[in-house]
Amino acid sequence: MLCSRRNGPASQLALLLARQAVEEAGWGPHELEDAALVVGSSRGNASGWLSPWPGRRPMKILAVPNSLHSELASCVSIELGIHGPYHVLASGCAAGLDAVGMAGMLMRQGVVKRALAVGLDLPLCRELLGTYWASGMLSRNGVNDPYGSGADGMCISEGGAAVALEMSAEPGIHLRDYVVNSDAFSPLGMPPDGKRLAELLERVLKGWDGRVPLTVCPHASGTAGNALSERNALELVFGRDSLPDLRMMKPWTGHAIGGSGILELALMLAFVREGSLPPNPGWVSSPCGGAVPAAETALEGERLLVKSAASMGGHNVVLSLSVNA
Fold it and tell me: How many domains does the chain have?
């Protein structure tokens, strides 16, 4: 599916994801005409330039237009006939979740009435994996338990998702908040105190009194630095003994780099549409000890869903959504 004579592998994946989201949303040419398009990716088509992949079209490093990050959005806008604004975000592992937040922001500002957010990454080539390996961020033992004592790094995967957003007053899933900040700490690591992430969590939970159930889907990358930073952020906001309901997706999917945040959000929302929350794998550990749900949970009434993501270089993102089952 990623072998195209015209598009680089990542551009082709962005197009496939966008088409699926548009079809599920029931959008036709009229809805797409003035929609906004926001695409997030850490690496874009870089892997296609660095080395050939079986079943995927290799790209020369100076091939035009696939050497441009903007090609990800350009390809989708051309093929789907989207004439509204498009933007490409390259904010590392948070890029896909940023795309959802920026799409919602454009709608709230009255720029457009609907928007399409796409996030993806295809990092599984020798050259890119080599750089992660040299940094010490890749898992050596393959233990995909982000907060467990045996976790020693990221288990990288490929993936992405697309989410269609439009203004609606009907009950369902609604994007509430999109908040971001920066650690200004290190090009690789995260501050161990987790204060910047805690600030974002407190902002989206302002006014939350606990009467509406809360579910948090954390970044949970598997690196020691992320585990420590996130653990301390959760303790700062909730206290060690009163953590919210946590649902971790990377133990199921691996870490899809810039596509991870939107992929995990889309999987959560796919379960929500069926009236439940996804289970955690039975082997995962809680960030502060204790148990995490290892079974699907039926949804009843209203729930607040919070998704976070973080990037190398210190970019933090938190989205909150209200769900009416």
Answer: 2
pLDDT, tens digit (0-9, with 9 covering 90-100), for 242-295: 899 999 999 999 999 999 999 999 999 999 999 999 999 999 999 988 789 999
CB neighbour list of residue 59: distance below 8 Å, 6 or more residues apart: 8, 9, 45, 48, 49, 66, 67
Domain finish residue from 104, 133, 166 = 166
- Is residue 309 domain-shared with residue 223, that is, in the same domain? yes
Pair 44, 108 in one domain: yes
Question: How far apart, in whole angstroms, are the C-alpha atoms of residue 34 and residue 24?
Answer: 18
Residue 216 shares a structural domain with residue 161: no
What is the extent of the structural domain holding 272?
Answer: 173-324
* Residue 279 backbone dihedrals phi, psi, to 5 degrees: -80, 160
Question: DSSP of 256-322, one letter per residue?
Answer: -GGGHHHHHHHHHHHHHHTTEEPPPPTT---BTBS----S-EE--SEEEEEEEEEETTTEEEEEEEE
CATH number of the domain that 69 lies in? 3.40.47.10
Beta bridge partners of residue 277, listed in sequence order: 297
Phi, psi angle pair for 96, to nearest 5°: -65, -40
DSSP 154: B
